[in-house]
Amino acid sequence: MELTKEQFIRDFKDQLHRDFIVKINESTDEERFLALAHLIKKYISTPWLERRHDLIEEDVKTAYYFSIEFLPGRMLETNLLNLGILDLVEDAFKDVDVDFSDVVNAEKDMALGNGGLGRLAAAFMDSLATIGAPGFGNGIRYKYGLFKQKIVDGYQIELPDAWLGTDGNVWETKKPHSAVEVKIYGKVYLYPNGEGNFEPFYEDPTILRAVPYDIAQIGFQNGVVNNLRLWDVEIPESEEDKYRTIEDRRKIEDITNILYPDDSSYEGKSLRLVQEYFMVSAGLQTIIKNYLKTGKDLKDIHELVAVHINDTHPALAVPEFMRILMDDHGVVWEDAWNSTVKVMSYTNHTILAEALEKWDCNLFKEILPRIYQIVNEIDSRYVEEVSGKFPGKIIENTRIIRNEKIHMANLSIIGGHSVNGVAKLHTDLLISDVLNDFYQIYPEKFNNKTNGIIVRRWSQISNPLMSAEIDKLIGKEWRSDIHQLKNLEKFITDEKVLNEFYEVKKENKKKLAAYVKETQGIELNPDAIFDVQVKRLHAYKRQLLNLLHIIKLYWDIKDNLDIDMVPRVFIFGAKAAPGYRFAKSVIKLINEVANLVNNDESLQDKLKVVFLPNYNVTLAELIIPASDVSEQISTAGKEASGTSNMKFMMNGAITLATLDGANIEIKDAVGDDNIVIFGMNTDEVYDHYEKHDYNARKLFEENPTINRVVKTFIDGTIPNSQSEGQEIYDALIRHNDEYFLLEDFESYVNAQKYINDIYQDKIRWSQMALNNIANSGRFSADDTIRLYAEEIWNIKHN
Ligand code: H2P
């Protein structure tokens, strides 16, 4: 946008004055942040408004991305960068003597997500706007984001993340006039309406008011502003008499209170299903209402509307779309179904059975009586359509209702025209294994879309030092055309350049070390290798394998205090789901091993272990630029894609990885010499499954290193963790090590030794790092989303 520094300073002072009646030098950082955010909203209000109107008026096909998670983190810098005024504002703040980074730090993380899934959804919002595609988000405005993690005595403690504070989210705009009603519970009766359709009659439903809050999604320096719409629940005025006590009201308000309510109880399960339906119904009603403004026939809606089901949580979009078309607008089943399948598409994000949602029919029927009828009908028509054409077993495996459960992935696949995995290997596994039955029926629906990242955020915003270095070498065009990073390859033998990149990394390490010192009181040596694993804590991601290796190093040093090794700092960041006991035990053990190691002077600082609490997007922005080694060590076949792996490589960390998810594509991008691969591949893992021949106890008994390391969990070496140590020992030995840590252990240790060796050759290491940076452009989410736009949604982009 066109703006001078002087004009900006005037606008900003004005905004502060009007919002808070303060002068700039008396204002707090929070006031400054809020005023700046308000000013940004003012700058974009016209394109934001026009965008919506233009799309409706000009009959432009629009994609709607439905996701139960959106994880943008802080938005200030991204918004300024995308508006093209980040440098200008930083500069202006210097002129008025305000520390810009303090203003940035006044923003709370918007953490309406768990990990990669939600972060990807937020990235796609940015990319959609950046490629100028009409793509809007739909989600839930949770009052509490993902819990805030504290570590007390080594244990994870979960505190509510009241990110909205008392004044709400500064980026959002409440749109009460666009509220819609959503019906749940009650009974439903169908009366034939004489036109081949039914008129439903609802008896005693619970009626919810869904109120949208819109958040602008600003494209990168292109004037486009898309919309992310998050839905909040309220009690409709007409229903107020029904809710006389605070307790009654709370039951309704709870619906949008928290992300992923604990679903171990019936109430928790019900709440989750209500959340899913609430978001989907409110979103779809609005989409259809807007479509009708074009004056076109509803049976052609697929020509202007695409709806994306991000993971199975929004799968109710399929029957809800049918319901609205049929019940509210009288479209007959066949036409409604034809449109629904053309409108819907679905992304699968995991092959883990636990994450493929299934709902108990009784619970489903109770909460969503009309939707249940429709799902039933979809299911029986499906069976009718495929029977005789495919073996009974395949039909049984793919139908929606089976064993009194509703299979949401099956609903998404049958009810849509596209199913995609999120990395090549993952899609191959869906096709060959997990969804093979479906593949036989609908091969044309399957496609791959390897994940991507917002390259601007993970370089220009989070790593300004590296970005400046790149500018010096190849000019600034890479900032808007990431593929130009490839030009860095020219410098791969230039020792001066390599040294400079090494120094940049060291500066970033010092910055992280300062944070660790300040928050944890642990001193880190910036010449040590910073070896990092940050991601959701889950057994398949194998943080425990990392810990086994740390224990091995601990014993190696204790055995030989003169051991020749580059000092190593292991850094972890990970939240464990509140009900996930094993994951919490791993956190406890990492922390206790950290205590043991960090306080043992005999190790002479050769080994340090840091667990950074409350890992989130903001912390990632500090950690990733400071990392030397990127731990991507999941059991082959289990990590659908991974996206932190892409962020690390872009920041010049060397990937230490199994052949899993997008690691394989990173290897293809950088070449075998610039990545360190270890462990079993997917075929070998599957071979164990087939032959049932894995024997962890044997490895434990026959391999002295494994034996010693694993026994460390139960022999008292690690203090204060007897029961957790026993639990981990049991998981590995008594329960036969589900994720093959012990089988991959040797190979992992060797890979780590190799890392230790090459790090000593500074030039070689820096070459590898530079190669990674130069080849990271292919993981841009802008490119990924272009493929979604072209191959799945058929929407236009620039
Ligand atoms: C999940 C997968 C990742 C994938 C991401 C986005 C569910 O994220 O496990 O492999 O990259 O979706 O597609 P996560 O584990 O980080 O919660």
UniProtKB/TrEMBL annotation:
GO CC terms, sorted: cytoplasm
PTM sites of type N6-(pyridoxal phosphate)lysine: 647
Enzyme nomenclature, EC number: 2.4.1.1
Reactions listed under catalytic activity: [(1->4)-alpha-D-glucosyl](n) + phosphate = [(1->4)-alpha-D-glucosyl](n-1) + alpha-D-glucose 1-phosphate
NCBIfam families: P_ylase
Known role: Phosphorylase is an important allosteric enzyme in carbohydrate metabolism. Enzymes from different sources differ in their regulatory mechanisms and in their natural substrates. However, all known phosphorylases share catalytic and structural properties.
Protein name: Alpha-1,4 glucan phosphorylase
Organism expressing this protein natively: Floricoccus tropicus
Lineage of the species this protein comes from: Bacteria, Bacillati, Bacillota, Bacilli, Lactobacillales
